[in-house]
Structures are given as C-alpha cells and as structure tokens.
Amino acid sequence: MGANNDENLEVHDVSHEVVIVSFVAFGCPGMYNALSGIGGGGQLDTTTAAKGHIALSSVSAAGNLFVGPVLTNTLGPKWTILIGGLPYVLYAGSLLAYTHTNNQGFVVGASALLGIGASLLWISQGAIMTGYPLPQHQGRMIGIFWIIFNLGAFIGDMIAFGLNFNSTSGTVSDGTYIAFMCIMAAGCLCAFGLLKPYDVIREDKSRAAVERKPKVWVEFVATLKVLKDWRVVSLIPFWITANYAYNYQQNTFNAKLFTIRTRSFNGAMYWFAQMISSYIFGLFLDNKYMNRRQRGIWGFVITTIISMIVWAGGLAAQLRRGPNSDYYPLNELDIVTSGGKFAGPFLLYFFYGTFDAVWQTLVYWTIGYLSHESPEQAARYVGAFKCMEAVGGAIASKVNSDKTNYNVEFAIDWSIVVFSLIWVIPFVWKIQDVPAHAGQETEYVKDANDQGVEA
C-alpha cells in the first residue's frame, strides 16, 4: 500500500516540497551561515561567537536525537520547521545587542535556544530532502536544496560586503543584523507552504509516506533503534566531521587573516562554491549509467581525493601565516589593497567551501540510502547524524574558543578528516542496490502492527 496511483489528487510533487523547505533554509540557517562565514558572527571578538556555538551544538546534540525526530514524525514537518526557524531571528538580534552592550550571556542563551530550533528545522528538512525523492533523484534534490539554501548565505554576505565596504571598526553594522533578522522572519513564513508527507506524490505515482497515527513513545524507541545499526557506527566519524572544520575555516582562517569587508566577500564566495559543488556532485550521485553501489563507492573515492587536495593546500597556507609572518600578517589581507597576495588564501577559502559541500552532499546521500525513501525513517537517521555533527561542532568550538595554536587546530582538523575516511570503509564496501520504497512498505506494516493502522 506504499503506492497510490490516483492521478486526480491535487498534490505537490517532491521538487515543490524541496524548493519550499530550501527557501526556509535560505532565510534562516542561510543567514546564520552568512554571519558565521564572516567570522565571529560579524564581531571582532570571535570568542563570544565560539562560546555561543558551543551552547548551540551542545543543546542540539541532545535535541537532534531525542526531540527532533519524534516531533517531526508526530507534529509533521510544517510545524516543526516553523517553530524551529523562529530562534534564528533571536540569535541575530542577540548579536545586534552585543554590539552595543557586550552582553555575552544573551548571545550564549540565544545560541542555546537556537540549538533546539535548529534540531527541529534540520531534521524535518533532512527527512524531506532524503526521504521524499526516488533513489535516482536524491542527488539532484540535495543539490537543488544546497543551491537555494546557500544562496541565502551568499546574498547575506554580499549585503554585509556592501554595507561594510568602508568600515574600519572590525564589526559589521547594525543595518546588517537588522536586514538578516527580516530575511530570517520571512524564511520562517515559507513553512506554511509545506504539505503533509502523505499528500506528496513522487514521479512514479507513489506517495512519499504512508498514512500513520504516530505515537510519541513508538517514535522514541524507533529513533533509538537506528543507533544499533552497524552501518551507523561506521558512519559516526564521517558524520562528526561534517561541520567540524567550520570553526577553523571561519574563525581561525577567514576572521584572523582578512579585513572585515574582505571577510564578507570571502564568505559569499565560500557559499557560492558550495552551491556549484553540491549540485555537480549530486548529479554524479544520480548517474544513470552506474548502479547505486558504484555511485556510492565512487562518491567516497572522489570525496577522499578532493579532501586531501584541499587540506594539502591548507597546509601550504599554514606555513606562511602567523603573528610574526610578514607574508600573511593577521587581519590585514584585503581584496583591494593586498594585490596578488590575496589570491592564494582566497582560493583556499573558496575550495574549503567545495570540500564542505561535497562532504555534506555525500552525508545526505548515505541517509537516503539507509532510509530507503521513507521520510519517517529518514528523520531518525538525520537525527542520529545531526547529533553526531553537533558533538563534533561542540568539540571544535571548544578547541577554537580556547585559542588553541592555529597549527595544532589545523592538524586536528585534517587528522579527523583522514580518520573518518578510513573508519567509513566497512560501510562503503557493503553498499548495495536497494529497491525503491522498500523502507516505506516496511514502515507501513510496522505502523499497522504497532499503532492499529489499517493495513
């Protein structure tokens, strides 16, 4: 009963839902990423932003596993995404307040609340992006989402670039934060356009989800069960690494080497690189001339090659920077005044964006593979992924906020990348071709047995 061939139903297809949730992400986490990409949330004091990120990651680590999947599968994606988007506005407001009051506690508190909101938004978003599409369309849907989502960060950073072009203060202007808050609020409202998963019809006329009567306890237990999957154990370091390098890239590299206007420009190009890279890599992961196993294996091979090349470039830059360096002095590289010296670090930051996009695209492709096109099961795997990602983010933020020597921080980041690519080999080796809707049919039968749904 996983498929329904009634062509008279007035429903949106999968791409409509992915585009709508992409515009929510454009306005909320997209603007958040724009602030983060500038470095330090647009502040000269990067320690406050790092402490806020610790609070965000710590709270969301628990929320991602124990709250997000349960509420997504009980309330539905529309309401969880709407509720999850509101704390983004508060976070931007806390940075505006910090500019005038130096109230670090407000930033940290707003960040903690954002951890809950991010859990709800990202898990519902992940369930839509990986659970709705058919296997041969998952890469393209991930790429489309990544383009629209990162377009928010790109535009946000270009706004910051224009507003702060002549700034010498080291922090972004009040107008930057106000503009971001307005865009974030508009993004929240886009959630009203989402449908129930049952009302979404795929291209093969199957429903994206079965009709269910979810119960909180059943959802809680089902979420915990995904942690027993050996494939999840193999993927944990790969998932932890997904956002681990953000702190180094944005706070230690971009925020420490460049002037404020250049940080904004670099941030915009970082997200532009993500837009291009994710879509191209997503198309590869949908390659119709290869089966699913081949696409998965080659996806990990390509990700490994890109990772090693980009981080080798990072090593070259590390050897030429520092407080006593005449070549890359701190906070002085500028898009206008530094000439050719600006090009190398800028290109490196651009390709850091490529590295991140390829890694994240492959992460979500693996979740789509694990969940077998079931949005309910996808929410649970996304919850596990986001929990591990948040743990990695909290650790990275702690390292960053402790002002660890930048060479040590770089070495830790690259080592984690290498380790995760080795640890994931058992999962990669066991990738198989999986029939469409296999997970959806299993989910329906399970719900029928546990909750009294008519089979």
Automatic annotation (TrEMBL):
Compartments reported by the entry: Membrane
Transmembrane segments: 79-98, 104-123, 144-165, 177-195, 268-285, 297-319, 346-367, 410-429
InterPro entries referenced in this protein's UniProt entry, alphabetically: MFS, MFS_trans_sf, UNC-93-like_regulator
Alphabetical list of PANTHER family matching this protein: ET TRANSLATION PRODUCT-RELATED (PTHR23294), UNC93-LIKE PROTEIN C922.05C (PTHR23294:SF59)
Topology versus the membrane: Multi-pass membrane protein
UniProt key word Glycoprotein: no
GO MF terms held by the record: transmembrane transporter activity
Descriptive protein name: Uncharacterized protein
Presence of the UniProt keyword 4Fe-4S in the record: no
GO cellular component: membrane
The entry's keywords: Membrane, Transmembrane, Transmembrane helix
Species the sequence originates in: Penicillium malachiteum
